[in-house]
Every structure is written in structure tokens, then in C-alpha cells.
Specification:
This protein has 403 residues and is of the alpha/beta class. It has two domains: 19-141, Rossmann fold (3-Layer(aba) Sandwich); 151-397, Rossmann fold, CATH 3.40.50. Helix content is 41%, strand content 16%. The protein has 15 helices and 13 strands. Strands 8-9-7-10-6-11-12-13 form an eight-stranded mixed beta sheet, sandwiched between helices. A five-stranded parallel beta sheet has the order 2-1-3-4-5, sandwiched between helices. Strand 12, helix 13 and strand 13 form a beta-alpha-beta unit.
């Protein structure tokens, strides 16, 4: 009996105190038996300060929840709902190490969890197994800072024809110019297929091929799917609008995970709300909703905003961009904010001639044009590389000074 007490005490000391990191676990586990086993294992190891959840938190909230509770590791049940759990792994992994929990050794699921960002996989949930996991994580994390997470930008039109695809293409190219490292531009709008048209490019492969092969992507296969253009990698939509692209949430998660591993910045040219490809929307880090200051465009954008919010998208992810903005015509900035109950993140200059010239030539607009300067300053702001505030001109410095 005394020997057992000594062993238990020794395990507790080893689990909770012997590493250089002090763990506070967040346990997300709708599976009752597995939740009981994990909490029992942690108690046996001497952990008394844990945060258990018996339901999956809503999309977009798990990282904030971990920070709010002061948790620095997450044990996540992937057996109760694989799709929802995989989405949560992708959201939590940039903030805290994620240990996937599953009572079965499913090799395919283990691979998918690791690709989402999980760093360990536990099946038995015994004290010994949990202790070994914590020790490995402590050894890996103590000497090095966590890698900087990639950022996925979704560019979505509030109303068709407002210039969202033009903005997506120019933003991706400008981010590369701004030193963002490798940048990927993906045309998710398989009906319009605007990116290939705007950049005057053709490719033998498209998004549908990537969806079909999402579980077996590697460097060689991916190198055949993308096309280099203007310094960035581009994955186009199918050339034929009738080509089926069966995008669902699992496929979208697989692709996003692979892209995050290889590109610091990913720009998705998304279709409107509810169209094929909408499964990418909850996976983006920032959703750039594009509109103009015309009354009809704002009416459509307001309806799009309502749909996005009803789907559970966090407002903090939304950034409103007003394109083709001319202060002398259309609604003013304050009217746009009143109509949409969302302040514009940026106003981009109306520069019709420069944009049309770029479309005809299949090239980005000139950097010195009004639109080129707007995109440059927008990219700097998104990347966090903008210079110190300059002499005030117009909102966010994105509009040309008036003579």
C-alpha cells in the first residue's frame, strides 16, 4: 500500500512538475467515457487545474477560449464528430499544442489529425500514456519558439460584379512584392473562373483536381497542379464552368491544411454566399467582404452579411472593403457604416482606366496608379508592415489626395 502511494506521488511529480513547462489542459471531449479516462489520468499525474468541455465549442472560438482560461494544451476528442473535431484542431493548433483523442488506432484519421496540426494522438488515455505525451511536448517546445502560423484570406463579393476577383489577384501579387514569402492564389469561384481570365493564363489542372487528390498531395503532385504567375502560385478554377468540383468541408480542410504548411499567405477568391465553395469560408482567418458604395450593392452586401452571421462566422474575422470609391458619387463612408453596421476597413480608389488596361494586358495595374497605391497600402496593413502614420490625407491613406 505504501509503495503504491509512493509510485502515484512519483508519477504526479513527473507529470506535473518535472518538465520545464507548466501545463494547464483544456479538455474538449463530448465522448463521456474518454472524458472520464483523460481527467482520471490527469488527476493521477497531479493535475488539478483543468478546463473540461462536454461539447464542441462553436467554430472560431476555441483559440480564444483557451486563452481566456489560461490553457496551454488541448486534449480534443476526434471520435464523436470527425469533421467538427478536425476543424477545431486547425483553429487551435496555431495557439496551443493539440492532443487528439480517439479510442481506436485509425491510421487514416491519425494522418488527417496530424495534417490539421495535432502534435500527438492518444488512444488509451492512461496516466502513463498521457505522461509520455506531456514529456515529449515539453522537450520539443521548451527550446524553440512556436512557428508563425500562415494566414488565409478569403475575398468574397457582397454583390456580383463589385471587383472582388480583381482585388484578390492584385492583393496576392502585392503581398508577394511586399516580402510575404511564397503566396498562393486560389480561384474557388468555379462558375466565373475570373482569375485565369484576369491574368491571361491557362493551366492543365484546376481546383477540382486538387479536391480529388487532397488526401495524397505531396510536393511533386502539387507542383503540377499550380501555375506560377507574376511571382505567385495560382490554382485556377476549371476552364469549363460545367466541370463538377465536389468541394465539401473535409476536402476544404485537407486543402487548407496542406496550403498552410507551404505558404505563409493564402488568398482565396471566393464565390458569393451559399455558392459551391462556401465550405472554405469558416476556415479562413480573415474574410474580406467586397462591395461598392452604390445603394444596390450595399443592399446585397447587407443580406450577405446576415447570411454569414447566421452561419456562425465571427464578426471579428470580417473586414469590409469598399472598391471603386469616389467621394463625389454614391454613399459616403459614414453612410456605408450606417447601412451595414460595419465600419469599412479600407476604401479603394476608383481607377477604371488603369484596371481595364490591366485586364486587357493580363497584368497588374501600374504600382503608381491610384488603384495600385490603394492595393499596396491595403497589403501593408494586412501584413502589419505599414509605415508610421503619415500626414493625413483621406481615410486610411488609401484614397488619392484631392487637388
Amino acid at each position: 500500500m505504501g509503495a503504491n502511494r509512493e509510485t502515484s506521488a512519483g508519477m504526479a511529480q513527473t507529470g506535473a512538475q518535472s518538465t520545464s513547462l507548466r501545463w494547464k489542459p483544456l479538455i474538449v471531449c463530448p465522448h463521456p467515457e474518454m472524458s472520464r479516462l483523460v481527467r482520471s489520468a490527469l488527476r493521477e499525474l497531479g493535475f488539478t487545474d483543468v478546463c473540461p468541455l462536454s461539447e464542441y465549442p462553436r467554430p472560431g472560438s476555441i483559440a480564444g477560449l483557451a486563452a481566456q482560461q489560461g490553457c496551454n494544451i488541448c486534449f480534443l476528442d476526434v471520435a464523436s464528430n470527425q469533421d467538427q473535431a478536425l476543424l477545431l484542431i486547425g483553429e487551435a493548433a496555431p495557439a496551443v499544442p493539440v492532443v487528439a483523442l480517439n479510442p481506436h488506432n485509425d491510421a487514416d484519421l491519425i494522418l488527417r489529425c496530424l495534417r490539421r496540426g495535432a502534435c500527438e494522438f492518444v488512444s488509451e488515455a492512461s496516466a502513463e500514456q498521457v505522461r509520455a505525451v506531456l514529456e515529449r511536448l515539453a522537450r520539443l517546445r521548451a527550446p524553440a519558439e512556436q512557428a508563425h502560423a500562415a494566414t488565409v484570406y478569403g475575398v468574397m463579393p457582397g454583390k456580383p460584379g463589385c471587383g472582388a476577383s480583381t482585388l484578390a489577384a492584385h492583393l496576392a501579387i502585392e503581398m508577394k512584392r511586399g516580402g510575404a514569402g511564397p503566396v498562393l492564389l486560389v480561384d474557388v469561384d468555379c462558375i466565373t473562373g475570373s482569375i485565369a481570365f484576369l491574368l491571361k493564363m491557362r493551366s492543365s489542372y484546376h481546383l477540382g483536381d486538387a479536391v480529388r487528390d487532397c488526401l495524397r498531395l505531396d510536393a511533386d503532385l502539387w507542383g503540377r497542379l499550380v501555375t506560377p504567375c507574376q511571382g505567385i502560385d495560382v490554382l485556377t478554377a476549371p476552364e469549363n464552368a460545367a466541370t463538377p468540383v465536389p468541394i465539401d468541408r473535409p476536402a476544404a480542410m485537407e486543402l487548407i491544411c496542406y496550403w498552410r504548411e507551404h505558404y505563409p499567405r493564402i488568398v482565396l477568391d471566393l464565390p458569393g454566399v451559399g455558392a459551391v465553395g462556401s465550405d472554405f469560408v469558416p476556415l479562413v482567418d480573415e474574410l474580406l467582404l467586397v462591395t461598392t458604395n452604390e445603394l444596390s450593392a450595399l443592399h446585397a452586401t447587407r443580406r450577405s452579411l446576415e447570411c454569414l452571421e447566421q452561419s456562425g462566422l465571427e464578426r471579428q474575422k470580417l473586414k469590409l472593403l469598399v472598391t471603386r470609391y469616389t467621394p463625389a458619387t454614391g454613399l459616403k463612408r459614414e453612410d456605408v457604416e450606417t447601412a451595414l453596421k460595419l465600419a469599412p476597413y479600407a476604401l479603394l480608389s476608383n481607377d477604371y482606366d488603369a484596371v481595364q488596361r490591366g485586364v486587357l494586358e493580363g497584368k497588374p495595374v501600374a504600382p503608381g496608379s491610384h488603384y495600385g497605391r490603394s492595393i499596396h497600402l491595403l497589403a501593408e496593413r494586412l501584413l502589419g508592415t505599414e509605415n508610421a502614420p503619415k500626414k493625413r490625407t483621406s481615410l486610411f491613406g488609401l484614397l488619392p489626395a484631392r487637388a
